[in-house]
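Hi team,

As requested, here is the filled-out complex form for the zinc ion run. I kept the field names the same as last time so the parser does not choke. Let me know if anything looks off before we queue the next batch.

— J.
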Amino acid sequence: MSFSPLVERLMESLRVLPGVGPKTAQRMAMHLLERDREGGRRLVETLGVALEQVGYCRRCRTLTEEDVCSICTSVRRDDDLLCVVESPADQLAIEEAGGYRGRYFVLHGHLSPLDGIGPEDIGLDQLEARVAEGAVEEVVLATNPTVEGEATAHYIAAQLSSLDVRLSRLAYGVPMGGELEYVDGGTLSRAFNGRLPFRGE
Amino acid sequence: MSFSPLVERLMESLRVLPGVGPKTAQRMAMHLLERDREGGRRLVETLGVALEQVGYCRRCRTLTEEDVCSICTSVRRDDDLLCVVESPADQLAIEEAGGYRGRYFVLHGHLSPLDGIGPEDIGLDQLEARVAEGAVEEVVLATNPTVEGEATAHYIAAQLSSLDVRLSRLAYGVPMGGELEYVDGGTLSRAFNGRLPFRGE
Ligand SMILES: [Zn+2]
Ligand SMILES: [Zn+2]
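And here is what came back:
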């Protein structure tokens, strides 16, 4: 025996969520159907709208339902600093650490030739054009301190080498092999202040 | 800083799911928006349809999108045995333990006067009418071995006392204070075989 076909389909579709196995999916389906249909309807509505309307900021590529995001339109941010991150979650972690007042550029990933992810897929043509505009004086390469993040930083450094811009990298206060989004604010903040010139060696 | 308003609303609405706190909701929202929009759209579609179409079986009250569920319509189940459970998840656990070939009745909860949940809210009028039809010879009271489950079993026993039907309760192989849905199949199976006459003392 199993649940009815539609309930089974619901449990299966809940497994699209990260960290959700069969038992958790069953508990979630039962909770929504037995105890919180109103909350379930709100989730359907909000997720539907978000999937339809949330796209990339035209200028920095972060997730937003606007054409240009609130950080890009803010007049209180420095145009001469540009921080390149792999994900909106990394960007949020840096914002929450405090202290950084420049702009951002979001890659949504890193170079990964084996997965067929090349420079255009992570917006590097757009990044180069942005820096070529001339306002940016320093690019902070805040990709993750992983093998892929390092390789991506090196690629970007080579790509921007002919442009008149300083490159820096977060100081290694951030633990090797870790993910920025899970680093505590104090460590991130110190890593930002201790950032070093990027040599691309 | 936070994410854009719509992304924040998505994270908030994901917290309707059991066991999902702020950090998990963020991870889920990022996963859906960054890496699996197709899976997200399937979830919207399936959850929407399930919330609209899945209701209670007219005969046993289990969750189903049909008018009457597959166990109630099956000709291979015994009409003289009726097992009363608190939830569809408990029913599934008993089915997966194997060995039981009777019918079911699903309460969707237990009596809880403090929460305003009375006999009609858990279908006890319908249960009495079902037993009064005369085909059922034994009612297995398989409510959870918790204070509320015990109280509900006693209430049902009193309600059915004037009818010509045997009452039994699962043997206490199931751990006190636990929830049926998490009991292993072997224990459940033994508890079923060792079920005792219910005295309602
Ligand atoms: Zn932007
Ligand atoms: Zn049924």
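Two things worth flagging: The longest strand of chain A covers residues 81-85. The CA atoms of residues 58 and 82 of chain A lie 15 Å apart.

Thanks,
J.
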